[in-house]
Amino acid sequence: MSAPAPARPSESEYAPYYETYVSLVPEADVLGALERQAAETCALLRSISEERAGHRYEPGKWSIKQLVGHMVDAERIFAYRALAIGRGELRPLPGMDQEEYMAGADFDARTLESLAEEFEAVRRSTLLLLRHLSPEAWARCGTASDNEVTVRALAYIIAGHEAHHARILRERYL
Fold it and tell me: Which of 48, 52, 59, 94 has its CA 20 to 30 Å from the CA of residue 65?
């Protein structure tokens, strides 16, 4: 049996930087938002041709494939943080340098379809994790990227990060 979705996090539950993402999640039901986003984002990605998938909206910016790969990497990291903190990890969790991650990946060598499949699988995994957390786990606080954060806030950060990049994809790439 899964626990009900948690209440929206207060601003004290995450670093100010993440307000950009949390504010993009209007729903009180973050699990419903994550599920809805998965369907919408996968449909959007599958509407983009492979020829278009290498497009960059300006020189030096990521391609569509790289943007999707970044979304997958970031969700994995945020979900790992939710898992670790939710299970009671007391040690600080490391940050993520998105440029270093991008340098270590070759997303442009993949098909957009394979990246969409991976996004879908990662989101399904995230939802399975979050749906089965206890109320106590949702409220746990830990340290990630040198900042305190709750599991509840991480769920909203995941949803907001995806919303942020989906908006960029629609506005600047398509």
Answer: 94
Q: Helix/strand/coil (H, E, C) string of 27-93?
A: CCCHHHHHHHHHHHHHHHHHCCCCCHHHCCCCCCCCCHHHHHHHHHHHHHHHHHHHHHHHCCCCCCE
- Nearest Cα to Cα of residue 15 among 149, 169, 154, 135: 149
- DSSP, residue by residue, 105-124: --GGGS-HHHHHHHHHHHHH
Name residue 8's amino acid.
R
Residue written as tokens 């991976």? Answer: 118
Q: In this structure, which amino acid lies at residue 135?
A: P
Spell out a b/e string for 147-170, using b for 16 or more CB atoms within 10 Å of the CB, else e.
Answer: eebbbbbbbbbbbbbbbebbeebe
Residues in the chain predicted with pLDDT less than 50, given as ranges, are none
| pLDDT score, position 3 | 60
| The pLDDT value given to residue 1 | 52
Cα dist. 62→72, 101, 106, 169 in Å? Answer: 14, 13, 12, 11
Residues 6+ apart with CB under 8 A from 7: 28, 152
Which tens digit of pLDDT belongs to each residue from 42-52? 999 999 999 99
pLDDT at 27: 82
